């Protein structure tokens, strides 16, 4: 699910969540309460109100347990053991994170964290 990272600083508005399109289609939806207009939850479809957006993608290469294995190797076999433990101990993987900065026509500005598939869906809906 798309994760709301913050940005709407209106004291009368509380953002509950932002959901991506479901099986019904719809759109990315902001679920919020505007206490000036009542205390019930409202929905706003983002693509109908989007003014602009920018996507920032970062990649991190993670190595699981290589430091731990290196330390264990050092304790068992000195510097050579540390080198062997660090190389054999961790499998590296690449993790992508996508953050989308948005501005709606009503002035709301906020950021979302999206997965790869959610970002692909985002681009489709925002072109409409």
| Rg over CA atoms | 22 Å
Round the mean pLDDT to the nearest integer and report it. 78
Strand order of the largest sheet: 1-7-6-5
Indicate the multimeric state.
Answer: single chain
- Series of secondary-structure elements, N-terminal to C-terminal: EEEEHEHEEH
Question: Can you walk through the features of this model?
Answer:
- With 128 residues, this protein is of the alpha+beta class.
- Helix content is 31%, strand content 43%.
- Strands 1-7-6-5 form a 4-stranded antiparallel beta sheet.
- A hairpin with a 4-residue loop joins β6 (92-104) and β7 (109-114).
- The protein starts with a strand and ends with a helix.
Question: How do the helices and strands line up, and which of them pair or pack?
Answer:
Blueprint: E1 3-6, E2 13-19, E3 29-34, E4 41-45, H1 46-49, E5 50-63, H2 66-89, E6 92-104, E7 109-114, H3 116-127
Antiparallel strand pairs: 1-7, 2-3, 3-4, 5-6, 6-7
What are the defining features of this structure?
128 residues, alpha+beta, four-stranded antiparallel beta sheet, three-stranded antiparallel beta sheet
Brief overview, please?
The protein is 31% helix and 43% strand. It has 128 residues and is α+β, with helices and mostly antiparallel strands. The strands form two sheets. The chain has a four-stranded antiparallel β-sheet. Strands 2-3-4 form a three-stranded antiparallel β-sheet.
């Amino acid at each position: 699910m798309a994760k709301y990272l913050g940005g709407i600083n209106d004291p009368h508005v509380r953002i509950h969540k932002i959901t991506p399109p479901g099986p019904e289609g719809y759109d990315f939806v902001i679920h919020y309460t505007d206490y000036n207009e009542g205390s019930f939850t409202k929905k706003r479809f983002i693509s109908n109100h989007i003014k602009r957006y920018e996507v920032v993608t970062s990649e991190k290469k993670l190595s699981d347990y290589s430091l731990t294995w290196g330390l264990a190797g050092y304790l068992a076999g000195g510097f050579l053991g540390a080198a062997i433990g660090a190389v054999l101990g961790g499998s590296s993987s690449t993790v992508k994170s996508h953050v989308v900065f948005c501005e709606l026509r009503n002035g709301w500005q906020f950021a979302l964290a999206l997965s790869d598939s959610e970002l692909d869906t985002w681009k489709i809906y925002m072109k409409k």
